Amino acid sequence: MFITFEGIDGAGKSTHLAALAQWWRARDREVVLTREPGGTPLAERLREMVLHEAMDPLTESLLVFAARREHLLKVIEPALARGAVVLCDRFTDATFAYQGGGRGFNWAVLAQLETWVQGDRQPDLTFLFDVPPEVAQARRAAVRQPDRFEAQDEAFFARVRQAYEARRQAQPLRFAVVDATAAPDVVGTQVLSLMADRAGVQGAEGAARRGPPLDVPGVAS
Ligand code: TYD
Question: Atom 17 in ligand 1: which residue has the minimum CA distance?
Answer without folding.
Answer: 94
